[in-house]
Amino acid sequence: MTNPSLPSEPTRRDFLYIATGAVGAIGAGFTLVPLIAQMNPDASTIAAGAPIEVDLAPITEGQVIKVTWRGKPIFISHRTAEEVKQAQSVPMSQLKDPQTDQDRTKTGHEQWLVVIGICTHLGCIPIAKSGEYNGWFCPCHGSVYDDSGRIRQGPAPLNLAIPPYRFVSDSKIEIG
Amino acid sequence: MSGPSKFQPTHPALKWFEARLPIVSLMYDSFVAYPTPRNLNFLWTFGAILSFILVIQIVTGVILVMHYTPNVDLAFTSVEHLMRDVNYGWLMRYAHANGAAMFFFAVYIHMFRGMYYGSYKEPREVLWIIGVIIYLLMMATGFLGYVLPWGQMSYWAATVITNLFSAIPWVGEPIVTWLWGGYSVGNPTLTRFFSLHYLLPFVIVAFVVLHVWALHVVGQNNPAGVEPKSDQDTVPFTPYATMKDLFYFSAFMLLFFWFVFYLPNYLGHADNYIPANPSVTPAHIVPEWYYLPFYAILRAIPNKLAGVIALFASILILAFLPWLDTSKVRSGTYRPLFKIFFWIFVAVCILLGWLGAKPAEGGYVIAAQILTAWYFLHFILILPVIGLIEKPLPVPDSITEAATGGHKKKVGVAGAIVALAVLVGLAAGTGKAEAAGEQPKPPQLTWTFAGPFGTYDRAQLQRGFQVYREVCSACHGLSLLSFRNLAEPGGPGFTTEQAAAVAAEAKVKDGPNDQGEMFERPGRLADRFPSPYPNPQAAAVAFNGVAPPDLSVMAKARTYERGFPTFVFDMLTQYQEAGPDYIAAYLTGYEDPPADFKLPDGGNYNKFYPGHATAMPPALMDDLVTYTDGTPQTAQQYAKDVAAFLMWAAEPHLEARKRLGFQVMIFLLVLTGLLYFTKKKIWHEVEKPREIAHGQDPKATKI
Ligand code: FES
């Protein structure tokens, strides 16, 4: 071993201390990776969150059903022509979170509204077919959504979210 | 320490805080300014190492609890879920399990160090006794934790250890029933063990605080065994002791991670990868290695109550050590006679440990009885007597004199002699044992996944899966695996489409549907492999009373006796393939029974099966499965391929583990090297004046 540590060379000694401290700090940093990563969804949870298919055929006009995807309730609403017309005709100026009904549905399937049934205020599940706007009413703190799932009244800041989904056929959707 | 604090804050905010809670000055006095003897050797770093391991155990333990389910039906699968699905779950569990072993390894060095240097002597009796309490708490915690995975060893360890209390006259039975919360070890036992296993580490922390407090009141002992007399005799804790502790801790982590990443199951028992079965006891019940000496003492005594008393006495006697050792001289360095008996005692403990792992029969029992007698005699006869008759060497006046006196250490020589004696003893014992048993050892095959850089051979895993599907799956489940695993990295390398196709061919039970009925549907990637039988009872009925076991962790649940000295070398060669070696040998080990062998009804003679009579008939023969890649279609090849596949099934993250292990090892080598030079540089300032004053080579006194 060489002996670079004569007192006359303080810079070299300082370098050694800094290098040791830095390497130790890097090690401590990397140690945190598995300790934190283990709390993320595990492989089985991710696999179980794969897309699901929902058959729309049994849902009659005016009916709202609830399915579960990734542990979240999904509302599928088969709206009447009247409801669709009403939803499409709301002026943007009346909306807290302006969005047209066309943006919230798929072209050619406007009668189908698919939303995540979680109140955007603090996560309660709103009740379908209730409230002033013939949409959803959240009993927790009184948020009211219209029949397009848009926030109209109450403390919730945003419209009910739309999950990723696509039409596999006219009467079947795949959520996820 | 008493007296005004050396910490004098200048910042007004700190002053304000200090006046209200003087914790900063407490920390400063305890871990910065605290004077430590300048002549401490590396054995004194194990206190710090133990503290760090305790932290590792608590952190990993808290994480394991996030994924573990304390229920007899779910415990085993939740542990496997952790190992397979949770991000870095395998790392957390292997670190925790091997961390326990390292904890005991370090504590034994710590204890023997205290014994050799007389660290229990006045005024450190209370410090020592707190240490014994911590050790007892560790043993309890380790045992409780071992039960939690709810494997065969867990279950039977719980049964055997709790039954120790049944030896108590009159109240023994009620106490055991109370411990169990039932009439046998069951769910109530598991849940309370879980609760206590979570509680006790924090009790240990509390006692460690007391231990450190007591240490800081009386000061550290040192190799010379004389108290510091002047400032010259001590150095401040920081940076001197801190850097030394960090360096040795880092070096210790190299050993720790060698096991975690390369030999994670070496210190465990294969039987604990078999789910707990209350109606079958494993052929060979052994505790973890760190309890073995006490287990040998328990079995050495042919009376139940006396055996249990001896077991507890062998631990509790440690608490009386301060009064059993009559010598006025503290350090063993200056006690020629004591030194000899100390090393004999170390050898006795190691040999007892070895005997604890051997079956309790014949010569082993007699040897264990002799060594047990010696163990107790060491405390109640040898120590008191040699303290009186021995002529100690001249003890140095001060630590500085001891540190600069160039006293030659013969510890290494003595250690070597002990090690040699132990090895000879073990070799003689094993040689005899081997001559007695006629169980042939499975041949050691070459596996691509062996060694520090091992990876699975994808083609081999695919062939092995084919063999499993076409042959084994008719009777054996693979219930811990999901179809998606087939396409996951580090596995057989099927595409997601191929894995989905395999899944779709399977029928999976699902439901209930809207009508409240269970129904069958084609499998999906997220599904587990369905078992061929709805429950083990149905399988048992179909197979003559012996249910074909699930194969998910089979490659880790089977092993064979490696023998001495092979098992020692296995630590260096990283041999972890006993499972696949055994499986490959077993599958092709069928023979006609020897003329004098009585095969029971429904049994098949297998050379490698323990006891030779196995329920499974030979399953593999040449050309049974059609390989598409031109690999020879022999039974031998099928056996090897399916064994490799089962190794992957049991250890799906093996490749990731070895890869990460290499990175960690390189990193730790760099860090340890840097810490070494930093420590050397810092200590240089302490050692240099001496070098000039005495004109000596500093290495002569450095440990
Ligand atoms: S959670 Fe729905 S209104 Fe507050």
Automatic annotation (TrEMBL), chain A:
Its subcellular locations are: Cell membrane
- Catalyses which reaction(s): a quinol + 2 Fe(III)-[cytochrome c](out) = a quinone + 2 Fe(II)-[cytochrome c](out) + 2 H(+)(out)
Membrane topology classification: Single-pass membrane protein
Q: How is the cofactor bound?
A: Binds 1 [2Fe-2S] cluster per subunit.
Q: Which domain of life is it from?
A: Bacteria
Keyword Iron-sulfur on entry: yes
Q: What is its EC number?
A: 7.1.1.8
Where would I find the Rieske domain in this sequence? 87-174
Specify where it is mainly localized.
Answer: membrane
The UniProt entry, under Gene3D superfamilies, shows: Rieske [2Fe-2S] iron-sulphur domain, Single helix bin
Q: Name one Pfam family in it.
A: UCR_Fe-S_N
Q: Which InterPro entries match?
A: Rieske_2Fe-2S, Rieske_2Fe-2S_sf, Rieske_Fe-S_prot, Rieske_Fe-S_prot_C, TAT_signal, Ubiq_cytC_Rdtase_Fe-S_su_TAT, Ubiquinol_cyt_c_Rdtase_Fe-S-su
Keyword Cell membrane: yes or no?
A: yes
Listed A to Z, the keywords are: 2Fe-2S, Cell membrane, Disulfide bond, Electron transport, Iron, Iron-sulfur, Membrane, Metal-binding, Translocase, Transmembrane, Transmembrane helix, Transport
Looking at the UniProt entry, the stretches that span the membrane are 15-37
Query: Other remarks on record?
Result: The Rieske protein is a high potential 2Fe-2S protein.
Q: Which NCBIfam families match?
A: Rieske_proteo (TIGR01416)
Self-association state and partner proteins as the record states: The main subunits of complex b-c1 are: cytochrome b, cytochrome c1 and the Rieske protein.
Per the entry, what this protein does is: Component of the ubiquinol-cytochrome c reductase complex (complex III or cytochrome b-c1 complex), which is a respiratory chain that generates an electrochemical potential coupled to ATP synthesis.
Recorded family membership: Belongs to the Rieske iron-sulfur protein family.
- Name the UniProt record assigns to this protein: Ubiquinol-cytochrome c reductase iron-sulfur subunit
- The protein's organism comes out as Rhodoplanes tepidamans (Rhodoplanes cryptolactis)
Automatic annotation (TrEMBL), chain B:
Q: Write down a Pfam family by its short name.
A: Cytochrom_B_C
**Where in the numbering of this chain does the Cytochrome c domain appear?**
459-632
| Keyword Glycosyltransferase in annotation | no
Q: What domain of life is recorded for the organism?
A: Bacteria
Q: Which residues form the Cytochrome b/b6 C-terminal region profile domain?
A: 227-397
Q: Which cofactor does it need?
A: heme b
Please state where this protein is localized.
Answer: Membrane
For this protein, what does the record note about how its cofactor is bound? Answer: Binds 2 heme groups non-covalently.
Instruction: Indicate how the chain sits in the lipid bilayer.
Output: Multi-pass membrane protein
InterPro entries with a match to the protein in the record: Cyt_b/b6_C (IPR005798), Cyt_b/b6_C_sf (IPR036150), Cyt_b/b6_N (IPR005797), Cyt_c-like_dom (IPR009056), Cyt_c-like_dom_sf (IPR036909), Cyt_c1 (IPR002326), Cytb/b6-like_sf (IPR027387), Cytochrome_b_C_euk/bac (IPR048260)
Q: Give the CDD domains listed for this entry.
A: cytochrome_b_C, Cytochrome_b_N
Q: Where are the transmembrane segments?
A: 42-69, 90-111, 126-148, 155-176, 196-215, 246-263, 305-324, 336-357, 363-389, 410-429, 660-678
Chain ranges of the Cytochrome b/b6 N-terminal region profile domain: 13-224
Keywords, comma-separated and alphabetical: Electron transport, Heme, Iron, Membrane, Metal-binding, Respiratory chain, Transmembrane, Transmembrane helix, Transport
Q: Does the keyword Transmembrane apply?
A: yes
Q: What is its main location?
A: membrane
Give the similarity note: Belongs to the cytochrome b family.
Assembly state and interactors?
The main subunits of complex b-c1 are: cytochrome b, cytochrome c1 and the Rieske protein.
In UniProt terms, what function does this protein have? Answer: Component of the ubiquinol-cytochrome c reductase complex (complex III or cytochrome b-c1 complex), which is a respiratory chain that generates an electrochemical potential coupled to ATP synthesis.
Recorded protein name is Cytochrome b
